Amino acid sequence: MKTVVAIYTGQGLADPLKAVFKEVLPDIRLVNIIDDSLIGDVVKAGRIPEGVARRLVQYYHHAEELGADVILNTCSSVGEVADQARGLIGVPIVKIDQSMAAKAAAEYGRIGVLATLPSTLEPTLRLIRKEADLLGKEVVLVNGLAEGAFDALVGGRPEEHDRILLETAKRVCEEADVLVLAQGSMARMEQSLREATGKPVLSSPRLGVEQVKSVLKQLESNPS
After folding, report:
1. How far is 184 from 71, CA to CA, in rounded Å?
2. Residue 159 DSSP SS3
3. CATH architecture designation of domain 3-96+206-221
4. With a cut of 70, which residues of the chain have pLDDT below it?
5. Tens digit of pLDDT for each residue in 35-51?
6. pLDDT score recorded for residue 150
7. pLDDT score of 31
8. Residue 222's pLDDT is what?
9. Is residue 116 within 8 Å of 146, Cβ to Cβ?
10. Can you give the pLDDT at residue 224?
11. InterPro entries of this UniProt entry (predicted)?
12. CA-CA distances (angstroms) from residue 163 to 119, 142, 158, 190, 197?
């Protein structure tokens, strides 16, 4: 049985992602490492503090010790730490938003990126730009920061969070061919945003797990 270790910086995505794994990769052993202090420290600093980066790398090492065949980094805010850590870790690290960013860059020219935190928006914009550069393609990126939505969510007002996100999506969709949800926790709104805007909407959880499945197949085909 293959083992996937998913590393979380907060609590919100673990249960929804577990359900996606059960559907896409029902026969793997899934281990979750959750440290919800990580996203709190990132939000407070407005960037990735050195302490957060060090703790994440330690968790990647712990994942190796747990027998991970693949590590899934589930937080878009810290994906660049995963990039830097790949040379230190002996198993593949999949970033949950990599496939989403690649799909957006490959298939669309004007890409609206929705996020409730600047610390997630900026890395996602950079990732999509990087994927477009790899394709030799020019894309237009539209900033879709839903200001106030994150505070509403952590303040126990999910309806207000959803309202702000919906209003932001309606504004951004006028300039975009597709909407990209920068945070995996926003995936629950994918269908409602699609219906409200009439535009394609991409979210990361399923695409990320499908990439994990692809990497596991490659490992089976090319054991080392």
Report:
1. 16
2. helix
3. 3-Layer(aba) Sandwich (3.40)
4. 224
5. 999 999 998 998 999 99
6. 86
7. 97
8. 81
9. yes
10. 61
11. Asp/Glu/hydantoin_racemase, Iso_Racemase_Enz_sf
12. 21, 20, 9, 14, 14
- Residue 92, Cβ neighbours under 10 Å: how many? 17
CB-based contacts of 214, cutoff 8 Å, min separation 6: none
Contact assessment for residue 131 and residue 100, using Cβ atoms and an 8 Å cutoff: no
Please calculate the CA angle 94-100-101 and round it to the nearest 5 degrees: 95
User: What are residue 145's DSSP bridge partners?
Assistant: 115
Q: What is the pLDDT of residue 12?
A: 80
- The structure tokens listed for 123 are 């890395």
Give the tens place of pLDDT for each residue, 152-171: 888 889 899 999 999 999 99
Domain map (residue ranges) of the chain: 3-96+206-221, 98-203
The beta-carbon contacts of 65-70 under 8 Å, at least 24 apart in sequence, are 66/3, 66/5, 66/31, 67/3, 68/3, 68/4, 68/5, 68/31, 69/2, 69/3, 69/4, 69/216, 69/219, 70/2, 70/4, 70/5, 70/94, 70/212, 70/215, 70/216, 70/219
Domain 98-203: CATH class, spelled out: alpha beta
Containing 31, the helix (H) or strand (E) segment is strand 29-34
